[in-house]
Amino acid sequence: MTNYYGYELEKNKSVLILGDSHTEYAINDNIFTSSLNLSHSADSYFYSFLKIRKLKDENPQINTLLLALSNHNLLVEYEDKWIFNTSNIKSKLRIYTDLMNFSDFLLLLKSNPSGVIQGLIESPKYSIKLLLKGDLTERNLGKFLSSKRNSLAKDIEMFKNKTKDRKLQYSEVEIYYLMQIAKYCKENDVNLVFISTPLHPEYKKRKRKEFELLQNFYSSNLSEFKYLDYTEFELPNNYYQDMDHLNDLGSEFFTKNLIKEFPLD
Predict the structure, then answer these.
(1) For residue 110, what is the domain's CATH number?
(2) What angle is formed at CA 118 by the lines to CA 8 and CA 171, rounded to 5 degrees?
(3) Is residue 3 part of a domain?
């Protein structure tokens, strides 16, 4: 998948898939063979930007970026959870240090100096592991994950008991890096396509206001880019892990349909 020292992909890999757990579980790149899925649970647009910048630089054959865009990705409450908290910085810094420039590093350092220092202390152990193994999958930048879990009924029941809604406010940091991705793609001849993966109807019904906010943001800021909205894509209940993630049955069925409807493969 990659050379020993860098990030070189197989020449047939022209589509890069980035995002969080939605695309991580939904798009099977073993089926979508011209793609590489480097989605990762709880991935911020900050880290997606680092990945597309590095991978495109070393792989000029990348001509398309499928980027997850869903109701929660830009919400301000995830800014700390997915970027700035100490645990996240410690786990991410060791993976992404060689993808960062000075301004990228400074963003983390200013927000959480202690977390960055702790991350740097732990980085050498991880670097030795990479020297020994070297493969891109070992870097933990992300990959397609298959799951046989089906906890949909339990998840729906738990969801009904939740009373607190998330704050309908977007993170300036996430917006900035999302727009940086869009700018980078335009400047480097990468076809940016946003994608929302299938969601159970109960989930979308409960999160209606978040989806309205997202649609308004997309229409105002990103409408020049194609948006594949599969949130109402019909699937049987046994194709879901929970209300917003597909299991292996769902990912296989969805990926095969994605290829037919968006023939990149």
Answers:
(1) 3.40.50
(2) 70
(3) no
Q: Which residues does the chain have with pLDDT short of 50?
A: 1-5, 265
Q: What is the pTM of this model?
A: 0.93
Grouping H, G, I as helix, E, B as strand and the rest as coil, residue 11 is coil
Burial 223-245, CB ≥16 within 10 A → b, else e: eebebebbbebebeeebbbbbbb
Structure confidence at residue 1 (pLDDT): 43
The β-bridge partners of 66 are: 17, 193
Q: Which of 230, 207, 197 is nearest to 75 (CA)?
A: 207
How many beta carbons lie within 10 A of that of residue 210, not counting itself?
A: 18
Please count the structural domains in the chain: 1
Express each pLDDT in 63-114 by its tens digit. Answer: 999 999 999 999 999 998 899 999 999 989 888 988 999 999 999 999 999 9
Tell me if 236 sits within 8 A of 12, measured CB to CB.
no
| Contact by Cβ (8 Å): 209, 168 | yes
The angle at the Cα of 231, spanning 227 to 234, to the nearest 5 degrees, equals 125
**Greatest extent of the chain over all pairs of C-alpha atoms, in Å:** 50
Predicted confidence at residue 2, as pLDDT, reads: 43
Does residue 10 lie in a domain region?
Answer: no
